[in-house]
Amino acid sequence: MTTALAVTVLGMTATGSAAYAAEGDAVNTALQISQVPRNEVMQFDIPAGLIPDVLLTFGEQTGYQVLYPTDLARDVASPGVSGEMTPNEALERLLGASGLVYRFASEDTVTVSAQEEKQNEGMLLPPILVTDTATKTDTRMDEIPASVSVITREDMDRRGVETLNDAMSYTPGIRIIDYPGGQGNSQLYLRGFRTLNFAGEYHDGLRGGFNGYDNDIELYGVEQVDFLRGPASVLYGQGEPGGLLNLTTKRPTRDAVNEVQMQVGNFEHFQGAFDVGGSTNENGDLLYRIVGLARRSGTQFEHIPDDREYFAPSITWNASDDTSVTLLTSYLHKKGGGAEQSFPASGTIDDNPNGSIDHDLFLGEPDHNDSDVSNLATTVIIDHRFNETFAMHSATRYLYADAEYSTVGSRSGTLTGDRLLSRNSQYREQEAHQILTDNNVEVTLDTGPVFHTILGGVDYAAYTRSETRFNGNNTTLDVFNPSYGTPISIGTTPSVDTRLTIQQVGLYGQEQAQIGDLTLTGNLRYDQVKSNSKNKRNGTTTKLSDSALTWRGGAIYAFNSGVSPYASYSTSFFPQVAAPAFDGTSFDPTEGEEYEVGVKYEPRGYNSSVTASVFHITQTNVLSADPSHTGYFLAAGEVVSKGLELEGRIDLADGLYTKGSYTYTDAVITKDTSQIGVKGNQMVAVPKHQGSVWLDYTLQGGPLSGLGLGGGVRYVGKTFDASNTNIVDAYALFDASIRYDLGEVLPSLAGTELRVDGSNLFDTEYYTPGFSRNLVFAGNERRVISTLTHRW
């Protein structure tokens, strides 16, 4: 009978098939069992447990010696593995979401290490894709019964992205409205549903905010973006049924990070940035990272800048092997234009007898045109493992935001005499405080044939915003012969003076049951949301209180071939706190449900993946713009969104890969209780067809070794504007990137890269739907940015 060798030498633990003596005794040689070829199928029966235990059993069953650093594997759980497969496939499943990777150091030795270490050694085994956005636990993609896209920092750098719009532009299932020169955060449509006020945007697992005009995100400070499709209320509470984005902030790492960057581009774009960090000592128990950026830039519109400063220091204290505390802080200040750059449909997407309006026309007034937003955030993340069964996670953020706007913008999309745009003026200031916290306990249990990962948690959000608005005089602008300088006079009596408070508390539970290659996931959550809006002008207060029970069930089966079919059902709810009717009444929360089936394919041994999914979402009590009262809403009834999404990333050869996507979305208003005549229409701003493809190649040798080239095309089909009657034409945009490692020419420049990125290379003029009827936004014009980056 053969037992396993387990000795520690220079911090490495070895498990294998020699005899193991008692601690302190000499190790005697024992009979060796023959090693199983790494690509030969064999029967495995390794129960769930801690990484050291499962690797020990793996060594016993295969005859391999397994080496790994003890500090990486202590108290990390593995689901085990059973069934017929190759040793390669068994190792992938055993390591799963541990964050560890493996390589065969010799014919009889396997080395397990951190992903970063393996990359530094130049090994090219395919990564194990893991995300916690869909389950709040570290879970492999082929164990998640949902569709998830992951946009890594490497992917963002390869395409030279600058904004969230850029980052998501090659991802299926999402439509982000381009709004150059505009105010507020991104406008997201996920699987056909618009997510206002950060309802679909999370930062480090916590909602990004509650108002799109007092908060934002600097993409240079983001490490990864996860897009979870479908209802997510079972884990995150109130939200639209199309899904959510979770942006992970750059955090301290054990490995040193040192980067400085300079940019220049058209529209007088100048930017400098840095990203530095690492460990303060050899033990790695205190880590730090500091990210900073400063930009001075114009836009495609005169008088509208795109300036910002960003500073984000963070530290991580690894108090022990079982406990870590991370403090993330950030300050963001951005300055833009206050003009409401909403173009009339006439002269843009519709014919006008006077011709076409210039695509870069400034619609405001230069002397009343300011947008100044600052926010300061502090986040504390605590992770602690009590033992091999229990672990806890806590994340808490406080954010303060201050915003001021001096605006002049369109009153309506109707031109007087086919050329005069009626504009209103306003001064607006607001201040907001928010605190969010999410705390959960994870329990891992092995009950024989079933390995359980059980999650239970509670989250809380409190948001307060004070806002004051002062209206000014109305003016007109001849959009075909503009003349500026009309005096703007702002009143002294506020037209809006409110204080809004929102509180939400949610209790949630989740069970992930793994039975061999089958993973079953179930969720249940209860939410209570209260809001209080006080009108300081007349002393009235409006109070709302809503509660909801949401749930999810899903199953996925991971075949040895890499094919993983799945099916799921989930529900959502969203209180409509800030959506008023003209008569002042409020609306009931929307409720959504989704059926989804799909298949994921990750071929073994290749860094490639393909996902296909079909979905059917029904949402009730959907709102539509009130055609008689601009800025107000009506309950349109019911919407059904169904569609197909395809996504793939394929390594074609060394240095050559392609990624592509296609989305078909049939989002139709199926009930129109407001009788405004939109039943049967496609939902506003949602195209039926979208597609993209990107091809990237880095030369592997020769005199141009280190030269990288990339190019892609994005297509967005035709859509309805906010009136749900006017058509906004389809468009296709072309992007390209070229980069070169200057160290290939001069060794003294090792770590220095020069790149040039261009978006909308052919300067195609296109429009996207605006906020109100007969109004559209001009699309982004051609942008070219050169970036010089040095890393050491």
Describe the structure.
This protein is mainly beta and 792 residues long. The chain has two domains: 6-128, 3-Layer(bab) Sandwich (Phage tail protein beta-alpha-beta fold), CATH 3.55.50; 244-467 and 495-791, TonB-dependent receptor, beta-barrel domain (Maltoporin, Chain A, Beta Barrel), CATH 2.40.170. It is built from seven helices and 47 strands. A hairpin with a 4-residue loop joins strand 26 (370-385) and strand 27. The longest helix is centred in the first third of the chain and has 12 residues, at 51-62. The two termini are 52 Å apart. 46% of the residues are buried. Residues 1-33 and 116-127 have low confidence and may be disordered.
